[in-house]
């Protein structure tokens, strides 16, 4: 395929695919190195960032521009770049991510998108009628993953599509448990923002009717998690919404 055609590659219109088609596809693995690493982008990069990285590399590494390496090596590198982009292009990315380990846990494409904090992909999948309440093998839903990542955009998309804010996983953890973000230690500017995002994630869930006193099978509540992590603002929010301090 010519460079011009490769660089003009655009993602297909999601509406051209029947609802649920992507979820039924088998996981996809690209041969060779990790596709994201080949393109020089993070696994959580947006589709637009991936496309931009591909176009830049395709122009820089085209065999016609080879000066340092042999033509054969340049052609191989260019083919690897094309294969990497094909693997993580919008129509294939969900299957590629599942093939990287998610399939073993029963993760759906929507769950993988939430875990990656990819709001654009979450929006596209729910518009294609992805099951917002599907669970992985541990009972976690897409909303639980989005809550754990404090990805407010994804959370709003899921809730707008009637995601169950009261759902629990196999161990009894609720969306609020995940949103509390118990492992966060506020020891730097980035962690401060992360803690604030989790605070807003909990606030959003509670505003939507999530139970503040949901407990696991062994009695662990969101308030206990917040208290253990020493996050006073989270504790205050939960108490103001009716969390039981004597549970």
Describe this structure in words.
The protein has 247 residues and is an all-alpha fold. Among the domains are: 3-97, Orthogonal Bundle (Helix Hairpins); 174-247, Ankyrin repeat-containing domain (Serine Threonine Protein Phosphatase 5, Tetratricopeptide repeat, Alpha Horseshoe), CATH 1.25.40. The protein contains 14 helices and no strands. α7 runs antiparallel to α8 and α13 runs antiparallel to α14. The termini are far apart. Mean pLDDT is 80; it is low at 1-32.
The amount of helix comes to 40-55%
Q: Which residues form runs of ≥5 with pLDDT under 50? A: 1-32
Q: Looking at the structure, what is the overall shape? A: elongated
CATH C-level class of the domain at 3-97: Mainly Alpha
The CATH superfamily of the domain at 3-97 is: DnaJ domain
Class derived from helix and strand content: mainly alpha
**CATH fold-level assignment of the domain at 3-97:** Helix Hairpins
Please report the total strand number as a whole number.
Answer: 0
What's the total helix number? 14
CATH architecture of the domain at 3-97: Orthogonal Bundle
Radius of gyration in whole Å, from Cα?
21 Å
* SSE order, one letter for each helix or strand: HHHHHHHHHHHHHH
Quick structural gist:
This protein is mostly helical. It has helices at residues 3-7, 21-24, 35-39, 47-60, 71-88, 93-99, 109-115, 119-127, 142-148, 152-160, 175-180, 189-207, 222-228, 232-240.
